[in-house]
Amino acid sequence: MSRNLANVKPNLIDAVALATSHRDRDELDRAVARMLFDHVHPNCVKVYRVLGEEGRQRVQLRVSIDSDGMRDGGAPNDPALLPLVSEKAHWLECALLSDAVHYLPQGYLGERFDSVFPLLGNRGLIGLIEVEFSGTRAAIRPHDANLVQGVLRILRNHLSALDYGERDTLTGLLNRRTFEATFAKRRGAVVGAAAPEPETPGSWLGVIDIDRFKTINDTFGHLFGDEVLLLVARLMFDTFRSTELVYRFGGEEFVVIVDGANEEGAAIAFERFRQAVAAYRFPQVGQVTVSIGYTRVAPTDIPASTVDRADCALYYAKEHGRNSTRCYDTLLRAGAITSKKTANAELELF
């Protein structure tokens, strides 16, 4: 920041301290929006998340604040309905430059300029913050722009610390420790009171296990085993939608939550990933396969019960030849399973 720290108002320091006290990303978004609205005094502040890999990134409004109050974004769960970064010139320029962009809003002829700032994390661009003006304020003041950029540098350090605690150090996927913290909020936001019929859209939790991973480690060594884990994680990023939550639970086991799908859609999503792994040729190792068990997430579910049901379907897949995708709900209706645990303790599952 261009100003000496001694000249920064104490309440701004308090606001930064409050924002960086949040570990929940949604609460952090709200605190940042409130802080910038209170100290820069624009007409509106909008905080966006940037989802997906570079080249196909989409923008999801998370929160906006103006004189009427703060509102959550209410963005659609289907990422295909979210705008691409490239759809707005100022978003794209901000993403490419990783720097603030001041732009003329559509429909205005030199009357005012709005601003968009990049929010950066360990994995590059993870968010955008738009600051909009109207009335007597035609644009952000230079010292306010410097203030925003300084605050965002502090937030980058905070987000890096959050990422370190939330992500698996090998694969970059979310880790098991974050699963329970995010499960209830994700389930409630997406599933709500959805009926359990197969055709009803909802959330589905899948447990994915690499078949005979111990044999891979024993045969080729742990370095090649780690490379298999990395490549499987990359295939997850390429195959599942950018809004899905993907976790490494430890070892060769992963968990994925697929949102906004009916039973047929969930089957397609998990089966597409299984086929992608089976078709990929892993260096030195050759073909690797995975077994997948998945189940619908019910509104009253707790993490342990949901994972337990998906595990039951996974064990069924392991018992019946591996390299397959099985749905707990379908197996239960067909009478193929009658309890949550069906695995033979003597069977080599891994």
Layout of strands and helices, then pairs:
Layout: H1 10-19, H2 25-40, E1 44-51, E2 58-66, E3 69-72, H3 89-97, E4 101-103, E5 114-121, E6 124-132, H4 142-166, E7 174-175, H5 176-190, E8 202-210, H6 213-220, H7 222-239, E9 245-250, E10 253-261, H8 263-279, E11 281-282, E12 286-287, E13 290-296, H9 303-319, E14 325-327, H10 328-334
Helix pairs in contact: 1-2, 6-7, 7-8
Quick recap:
It contains ten helices and 14 strands.
Summarize the structure in words.
- With 350 residues, this protein is of the alpha+beta class.
- The chain has 10 helices and 14 strands.
- A 6-stranded antiparallel beta sheet has the order 3-2-1-6-5-4, sandwiched between helices. A 6-stranded mixed beta sheet has the order 7-9-10-8-13-14, sandwiched between helices.
- A hairpin with a 3-residue loop joins strand 11 and strand 12.
- Helix 1 (10-19) runs antiparallel to helix 2 (25-40), helix 6 (213-220) crosses helix 7 and helix 7 (222-239) crosses helix 8 (263-279).
